[in-house]
Amino acid sequence: MYYVYILASRRYGTLYIGVTNSLPKRLAEHRNGGGSEFVKAYGVHRLVYVEAYERVDEAIAREKQSKRWKRDWKIELIERENLERRDLSDLLV
After folding, report:
1. What's the predicted TM-score (pTM) here?
2. With the C-alpha atoms ordered 30, 33, 34, 40, is the resulting torsion angle positive or negative?
């Protein structure tokens, strides 16, 4: 599986969109200061949204599409599934 994910620095903070095939590993990298200079610089560590894909090309296309969206659209996407924008990382196996 491949995952498109959105991280937030806080409830109304900075957003980051990424793609990975191992969400727990990628979150650990981000939280340990690796993987993305943007995440490190802005303290974007809270997992607020995830989509799963079977094909990597679909996941990458969705990531690129989402990155082009206006901020309001990204927030609307997050709040459809996670109205409170709580950290979802505790739900990962």
Report:
1. 0.92
2. positive
